[in-house]
Amino acid sequence: MELIPFLRALSEASGVSGYEEGVAAVVREAFIRYADEVRADAMGNLVALKRGSGPEPRRRVMLAGHMDEIGLMVTLLEGAFLRFTEVGGFDVRTLPGQEVVVHGRRPLPGIIGCRPPHVLAPADTGRPTPMEELFIDVGLGADELGTLVRVGDPVTLRAPCVELKNGRLAGKAFDDRAAVAAIVVCLEMLRQVSHAWDVYAVATVQEEVGLRGAFTSTYGILPDVGIAIDVGFARQPGFEGPEATELDKGPALVIGPNIHPGLWRELKAVADLYEIPVQTTAAPGGTGTDANAIQITREGIPTALLGLPERSMHTPAETICVRDLQRTGRLLALFIAGMGQDFMDRLTWVPAESKGNGR
Questions:
Q1: Backbone φ/ψ region at 222: left (φ over 0), alpha (ψ -120 to 50), beta
Q2: Which of 151, 236, 241, 303 has the fewest CB atoms within 10 Å, i.e. the most exposed one?
Q3: How many CA atoms lie within 13 A of 20 on its CB side?
């Protein structure tokens, strides 16, 4: 698979939470190449099944990465202009001047506008313009606009994916379509190795508005083990803390209450065995990812989380390193290949040699 063109297609596709049809078509095309079955469930989650070679009934491992993106929604037609709100969590500082696509009766290119600084009151010059004071201009008059756009229509940013130096890509919606690409890398590798377990690869929906797709898909699949893949905060100017990860040093193995410690140990052992670079980050509570939903579905699912380092999260210039995705896909494939019939017996909470540190 040509990974960079695939990432570009994912990034530039439209798929605001609850309106994921556009990006789902891109993901489906990739899933069909490497899976035995592909289906969409009632929520719109895209579920690919790669059957294992073990005796039936086979154990199930679920890989989850969300394909929805943060976006905007029309709230009011104000003459020739559109007022809007956010779907998911936008940084309002990044919005003025952005190109957008209004998904009305037909796609309409537009620009997010605001009052020019010359007419602002002195008290307003030092603060970001609130979202309720921004507007979208598509260039139409009020009458024609009213025939093409309705309250509730979604709006996406029109941000091209840019290939930077040293394997970096910048664009919108790599949170979390970078993870979807890593899952496809895993599926591609699994065609070349034997694995006993059934693998369910899920591109989930509506993560940005409450992990909804992960809850429903996990409930339907009922995996024995779940692994979520999402982005994490990479080091950049203004964010240098111990929780920061580094681009091009592999995925982060997240540790904390949301993560089954035995599963964390098994993933780390595979990374060490095959010399796949990984990082470690601590999440002392919930992780705010699909891993939250997977862990507490039904009677509870042993869950792990891999974090892909990303700069400038929730902006139109989310920046990733392609090698981190390739390493993540390889780690997942080798881990799954090593999951035998006795794997669940090894997945104990605290082995004797590790008592006291949880690892």
A1: left
A2: 241
A3: 30
23-63 pLDDT, tens digit each? 999 999 999 999 999 999 999 999 999 999 999 999 999 99
Q: Residue 287 and residue 17: Cα distance in Å, rounded?
A: 19
Tokens of 155: 């709006």
Read off the tokens for 255.
């540790």
For the chain, the residue count is 359
pLDDT (tens digit, 9 = 90+) per residue, 151-200? 999 999 999 999 999 999 999 999 999 999 999 999 999 999 999 999 99
Catalytic one of 207, 208, 310, 318: 207
Q: Rounded CA gap, 318 and 179, in Å?
A: 13
Q: Pairing relation of β-strands 60-66 and 225-233? A: parallel
Contacts of 271 (CB under 8 A, 6+ apart): 250, 253, 277, 278, 331
DSSP three-state, residue 234: strand
In terms of pTM, does the model score above 0.90?
yes
What is the CATH code of the structural domain delimited by 3-69+172-354? 3.40.630.10
Quote the strand ranges of the chain, DSSP E: 37-40, 46-50, 60-66, 71-78, 81-87, 99-103, 107-113, 135-137, 154-157, 162-163, 168-171, 198-204, 225-233, 252-255, 279-282, 303-310, 318-321
Domains 3-69+172-354 and 71-157 fall in the same CATH topology: no
**Which sequence spans correspond to the domains of the chain?**
3-69+172-354, 71-157
Q: How many CB atoms lie under 10 A from the CB of residue 215?
A: 19
Q: Is 207 a catalytic residue?
A: yes
Architecture of domain 71-157: Beta Barrel (2.40)
Closest residue by Cα to residue 324 from 133, 151, 181: 181
Q: How many CA atoms lie within 13 A of 144 on its CB side?
A: 7
